Amino acid sequence: MAALWVLVYFATLIWSGTHPKDALTWLLEVLPAMIAFVLLAATRRRFPLTPLAYFLILIHGLILMVGGHYTYAEVPLLDPLGDYFGWQRNNYDKLGHLAQGFVPAIVAREILLRNAVVASGKWLFFIVVCICLAISAFYELVEWWVALASEQAAEAFLGTQGYVWDTQSDMAYALLGTIAALALLSRMHDRQIRKLSKETSE
Is 30 within 8 Å of 13 (Cβ atoms)? Predict the structure, then answer.
């Protein structure tokens, strides 16, 4: 399973980096996926994650790579939906921000539970939501800093497409993703954590 994960990751990364729409924007968009790979490789032996967490991280990485290849404003994946609903902008970036809450929610939940930082329950839910909103807000700050530093990549990286409330809606989608992940996957996640804990303790 790990080999398949790595194969899909690098196959998509190579495709994404082959003649992207804009090289600097590609690097900025895909860099988090690259950093995630290095961190996962470094912690694989001493702190392996659940299959669910690894799967979601891969999906998030693929979303970033597709967005980096085309730039978020020009990803054709959602064009049929845009035509059907009459969207005035390409909403692929909203999928990315939904994932920005959905995926870190499971990763943060796993780290907190397995390190006994907080027990399962309302406090866990609250803390995970706060962590994911903090990540989303920090990413918006990074986008702002990049826009100030590089006029060339600013528009493509920000992906606002003229929407004045883009930053706020990005964080709202991350919040929605966080709540959805916790509501839909917590029980499955708990089962995988228990199984992993048993395997690593043997």
Answer: yes
